[in-house]
Design a protein that fits this description.
Elements (H helix, E strand, L loop, with lengths): L1 H17 L4 E10 L2 H10 L6 E6 L5 E10 L2 H11 L6 E2 L1
Antiparallel strand pairs: 1-3, 1-4, 2-3
């Protein structure tokens, strides 16, 4: 768990140093190809005009998801990563 805290801390530092907010931020995830998991990820970003693009893997076992959304600050970005991280089987890229 400490490793995740370190990752979020480093991400926050990087975002604060390199990004002017508000900004459009691109999230990328891979999830198992299950309709309810896709619905869960859509619910995490179900506000603010998120543009969600999905692509199935060659075998159809997984789905790649790209989400472009305007975020107000680094804390909001990290909050969404944490919320999405509760979805079983999700991989953040």
């Amino acid at each position: 768990m400490d490793e995740k805290k370190d990752i979020y801390k480093k991400l926050k530092e990087t975002l604060d140093e390199t990004t002017t907010f508000p900004t459009k931020y691109l999230y990328k995830f891979i999830i198992p190809n299950e309709a309810f998991k896709l619905k869960q990820i859509e619910n995490v970003f179900n506000y603010g005009g998120a543009v969600i693009d999905t692509r199935p893997s060659k075998t159809g076992k997984y789905v790649s998801i790209s989400i472009l959304i305007e975020m107000q600050d680094s804390n909001e970005i990290i909050s969404k990563y944490k919320e999405a991280g509760t979805i079983k089987g999700i991989i953040s890229l």
